[in-house]
Amino acid sequence: MRFALETDPKRARTLPFVAVWLILLLLGGLSLWAAFLGLGMWTPAVQSGIAAIQTALVFTVFMRLKGEPSLKWVFAVGGFLWLSFLFGLSMTDYSSRQGWPTMYDPSGPSYQLPRHSP
Amino acid sequence: MPDSAVLRPDLQYASLAQQGETAELGMWVFLVNETLFFGALIFIYFIYRLTYPHEFAVAARDAVLWCGSVNFVLLLTSSLTMVVAINAAAQGERRAMVCWLIATAALGCAFLGVKGFEYYLDYQDEVVPVVNYLSKPGEGRAGELFWVFYWIATGLHAIHLMIGIGLVLYVLAWKIPRGKITPAYYTPLEVIGIYWSFVDTVWLYLYPCIYLVGRS
Amino acid sequence: MSVTTVERVPQGDAPVSAEPNYLTAEHTVASWLLTKDHKRIALLFFASITFFFFIGGIAATLMRLNLATPGGLLQPAVYNRMFTMHGIIMVWFFLIPSIPATFGNFFIPMMIGAKDLAFPRINLASWYVFNLSGLVVLYALIMGGANAGWTFYTPLSTVYANGYVFAAAFAVFINGFSSIMTALNFVVTIHRMRAPGMTWMRLPLFVWAIYAVSVVMLTATPVLAMDTFLLAAERFMGIGLFDPNHGGDPLLWQHMFWFYSHPAVYIMILPSMGVVSEIIPCYARRPIFGYAGMTIALMSIAILSFFVWAHHMFVAGISIYSAVFFSLMTFFVAVPSAIKVFNWTVSLHKGRIVFDAAMLYALGFVLLFTLGGVTGLMLATLAVDVDVHGTYFVVAHFHYIMVGATVSAFFGALHFWWPKMTGRMFPESWARFAAILTYVGFNLTFFPQFILGYLGMPRRSYTYPAQWQSWNLLSSAGASILAVAYLLPLLYLGWSLIWGRRAGANPWGATGLEWITASPPPPHNFERTPIVTLDPYAYDPETGGYTTQEGTLHAG
Fold first, then answer.
1. Which of C30, C100, C231, C311 has fewest C-beta within 10 Å?
2. pTM for the predicted model, two decimal places
């Protein structure tokens, strides 16, 4: 709740935020540029990494998590930890399936049964 | 001018400081919930993109890149104006706080405006599943999955943004005129700021998922 | 064997306090519907969940009447709607809110020495959102009901089922927000509002259990919210997210559904474990064995419950390697539960056991939970599951846990805390009779279902081959006994509200902070915030005395 630079002149208070804002814009631009580089299957990995760095910056600076570790950190990280359970453990199924990811041919013949109203 | 002696903690709290810290912790606990809500949607996108990389690449080319990028800048800037407003609240600079809050709400509305225009363009491009959808060559049946994700993700994100704008307007129209935001206790604004920055964070993930696919 | 509790010496009514309590402080309807008092909100939730318990119970009654004979009673299509609505209503509108929203709301602030929860308005909002979701599910029910099973598997639910699936799914979606608000309140309250001296390791195990359940609710429910939202959208708009015709994967829906619904079954059992951990020390008159182990077990169950969900999907089409992994994790999650059962059992050793109604329910819980848990291990075994998946073996397993264990603990909590909430004592002999009748009726209803499942009777079927009728008839007969056993408390507890002896502050001689204040409690719980000096469960088995957590010794 207390800003570290409270007693400093006005410019010093807002400067860190403006600096982080510029860095976030640059990272976004980097992500945009990477999309056109033709990195193939590495593109989403690079873009996810950039998004993760951006998230860390927004959390620590804009959402004021920086400073000494506190209970808020546990909850800030906890959501992502639980997401890793969902992603990771589901991949035990998907990654070990026969013939995945080309599991289904959506252009193949389909059967039509009558749809029902809600 | 209202002073902080008017503000008393609710009866279950021993002090305003305890009330403030508890409210902030409450918002972080709520964000766990939001992370998993949007994360579940991105999980579905993740599985389907891994399953149909080519179809997704073809379908995503119709995403309007300039709209998405302009919105990226607008939302990020609104996060900046929000934290500057909170800074002003901490210093008791009431006029600056109000100005920056209005800027935040305005940038949020600009985002929604661009999004609305983008939706209009999407309708023209015939990428609205069920309503007005035309499969582009090469995207098979699965390309529509990308667009289902697009409409649901951006729709839910826009709803969350509207709630954020509503909260900012609530503070501007109700709390500030009644003197409830003072340097001694400006937690409601901090809590809304954390929520606002989180809505921005969601866009940090939606942007590459939607607009930066299949561009090369 | 001793049948009286420590303080229950023959006495007239306890003196009636001149101070208003939380029930008498205000009388208007608005003071109830717009209350911020967590105790009143608890009673509001009580009313709602009791109503839905009866609705779900009526569905169960019709199902068991239908299954008493192979010829049946209901049309097959109607039967499908019965089991679907029974599942949806019992899971989301009774079991999940049951202990947290009632006893949790009432007693968490009191047990930690606080005046209210952290966010009282969110607490009230949670009740209103619950009722909103209840209205939607009642609409679905009255219009004819959904018929895709409470598990809503796609594409049956999204494309082919012709019942009110959208309304039911939407009701579940709204209901999730009620859970989330309650859970958020509990987590923040337990972190920030504990009285001076109330450290984490001095918290009663009920508080730990509610904390663990709140963590699970908070992290699991949003995934269900997204899943039901997408289901409702697909149903309503015909989009093809989980439809194989559009390249969708039905198993993806199931993965997300069970990512929530497996932790959901732990949401349903953890609070009851907390209740039993309160009742057993009090009625055995000795401290719980292995307090630290119990807290670690609670948190382990909460986290491990997220690693096992695909054991519901062993035969759905997931890869065999994934199935092996989830089977192994399911064996692991049984370990902390088993530790708790051992600890409860050892807690009875050398105790001066009092067989009051609450203790009978708690002991029944331990036995029925053990049986249900062991059959869960049988289901976790891949080779066994291939044969009994989708049969009555599974139905019996989860009813042993959810009804045998959770509902028993709910009634145990009701009897344990009834004097504190209402200021009245109930007739103990009737209560003991109801507890024993519950146990008999329950086993008669559900044990035959293990046998039927083993013999191969599939679940969700309105009829069955004639050679299984005797087991089904036995099960239906047991259900009628169980129904009586569940109705009895309504009668004698209702009687006690008007004619019951007035209760003192601590009729059972228990050590928690909620027992140091009057029965019923004053609106703000405590005159002065108590200062905690002791670990919980300071019962002295040697002398028969006990000390409440703020330090008041009561000699034996």
1. C30
2. 0.94
